[in-house]
Model the fold of this input.
Amino acid sequence: MPEYRWPEMSKRRVMGKRINRLDGVEKASGRAKYNSDLNKPGMLHGATLVCSYAHARVKSIDVSEAEKHPGVKAVHVVAPAGTEIQWAHWEVAFVAAETELAARDALKKIRVEYEVLPHVVHEADLKKVQDRAKAAGEQIEGDPDQALKQAAWVSEGFYGIPVLEHSCLEPHGNVVSWTPDNKIELNPSTQAVTSIRGDMARAVNVPVANVHVHQDHIGGGFGSKFQPDRWGVAAAELSKKAGGRPVKLFLERPVEQVIAGCRPSAYARIKLGASKEGKIILWESQSWATGGFTGGGSPPIPYVFTRIPNQRKNHWAVSTNTAPIRAWRAPNHPQASFLTCAAIEDLAAKMKMDPLELFLKNVDLTARPDTYERQLKKAAEMAEWKKLWHPRGEGGKGHLKRGLGIGVCTWGGAGHDSTARCNIHPDGTVEVELGSQDLGTGTRTVIAQVAAESLGLNVSDIRVKIGDTNYPPSGTSGGSTTVGGVSSSTRKATLNALSKLFEEVAPALGAPATELEAVAGKIQVKGNPAKSITWKAACAKLGVKTISETGQNVPREAPKEGLNTGGVGGVQIADVTVDVETGIVKMNRLVAVQDCGTIINPKTAESQVYGACIMSICGALMEERIMDAITGRMLNNDLEFYKLAGIRDIGEILVHLEIDEANDKRGVIGLGEPPVIGGIAAIANAVANAIGVRVPTVPMTPMNVLNTLSGRMS
Amino acid sequence: MTTAVGPALLEETAEAQTPAGVMGPGAVPITLTINGKPAKVSVEPRETLLDVLRNKLNLTGAKRVCDRGTCGACSVLVNGKVMYACTILAIDAQGKQITTIEGFALSGGRPHPVVTAFVNNDAQQCGYCTPGFVVAAKAFLDRNPNPTYEQVQEGLGGNLCRCGTYVGIRKAVLEAAKAMKGGSNA
Done:
């Protein structure tokens, strides 16, 4: 069996290089075809009718006029009479027509009678929603009552972070055909090419083998695109009713923003106790969150500082008449980081201690004291903490106040289950095939780098084929597990294939197959370039045969092989300026120091961290779902009033990836999620440092900042 | 009351009696000039240029994201000026020079300097907003061949990215500005 371990850092030729992503030109030139771009022959267009009420019962539904509308080929009802609707924008019916406009017109002819029922859409005030709140049960560690008596310092605060919407730029949906031979051709926008096949098959009761999935590109997922969803299944039903014609059904933006993914809120009253010197000895929290109608959403608090010896925690899951949550890039972690780091900085402010010092004093309460100590110091140096930090509220005399704040993160990120197949053809071409997907992380590119490294070739020699269920199964892209999974399976598949090639050429080189190596486009006797054969000539010896070998990453065995692992820490420091007259928060700088494992491509890896920082800025300063209490509807379900940062809003971002020999030996660790966690905490803390008071609820909008300054919220 | 209402707001029956010479409400044949070539297409007056490009002409580089003039993913050039194709009716685009990303991003397989700079600086992740950004960047650089860093931030302020690629985009636009000096294939 080949030695699968990664070559030593110093000996790598292709891995670790800052190469451009392989599909870069295709995407930037508009040539890349996303499934929402498909125009298939005979394709129908779908449209979705949603319910306007947040809570209602369908009394009757009449689609007969819609069915007669010119161009309509199929109508499919998913909320028949008797259905209890539990959130606004719940799907009621779908139409497929020759044109999108005809489908939309037909929706207007569907007559639905509702019995309107009372709803609850706000959860910020726990007292008002007690009857919708489910207690998780008290959790106690140590002796919190005793700790409260012992504590020399006690700090209390209320903190809240709202529901956010995934806002993928490519909406959810698919092009799908369900033909009379009972076969389904599915072109979704998905983070789960392999598993969506089975999910769709189950949903429509068709054998999995009859379903084929293909996706070249996906326009954003962030945790919200794993399932076929009600609209995907409905599109398949529409296709069947229309005799198997492909149906394109992607959600329109006002619907997409509401039902296609949101992350849970988190609110908490937190009490921290510390010794005279600043050792944290007590955590008490009453927290609550909504994950939509089914509840859910529980921030893991205290976050990172999990070893606080005395804790009392109570959590309530609040059921609201709002769309259900989906996984969001680091589920529950940004919320937990904000709640925890805000409470710690408020304790520091009360003690009149530098929060950096307080964080450092308590790193032994984390699972990675050395990592966090090193990262806190590095981040402080990069953020010029010594020069720029000042005690809370001493941000200067004018209306512009500058402040600094800290946030921390942790994440797993080991590789998922993945199988790769490597084909070496007699003409020397190499294919690597996986049923995986590239969310923009650069999956294609890292696969090519690993394959080229393993086979002694260049990246341009490798044809990477992903996004199709005809390729071997690969896990879903969730939990930052893709690069760890696909790099490991690719490593094993390529080395397995190479072993076969060695066997073919061993006689010609007069050495046993185990004594051969692939170096710089040649196969040679180990350490003896004089006894070599070019890659092309070696492959020619295959005659008409193609070598096709697989390799699998099995998560529970991966730690032994050393190709991938999980578990990282990270620290971010924000530097902001707040205008206390307008309430506008301006980003000066966000510093991210990020722990990592083996980095296959530093360029795309850094992009992950930059992107995560920017997503944090959006969440800290702008994003929030705004619900209307009276109608129960989301008020800002568009991209104008659901605010995202633009290029002007982000300030400078400094990224320090801890790439070194020691970290490299840990193997590949996913990087998509960890850097998106600490930014909101850091920015919220920086605002408090600047203006002297805690803005209790994220986002730090002018309204929330000014309300706090005028005493309306604090 | 009815005298104050324009034809577009009339009920269907009234619309059917629209006087001759007025388009619609059904599909009408029009000719658009796209990437220098005439394109004959049948459109309803209410169809946006974006939907016609994507659904009827298979020019899908411009993406439909917000569909409400906010995000810039559908950016095209109309008479050389960058515009959101989702906010223009196709019938209003007649007689104008429309340039889509397909019209300039690759010529003879050679990427436009803006495309190259986006790739070099990894100014894209999922890539869905990217063609819109490339169109906006080209239009910006055509008018501001020597931009400052601050001007880049202002000039590209009309587009949104969800993956967070702005750091790369800033560098890319400055790099493209340098590369385009000397009359490259812009």
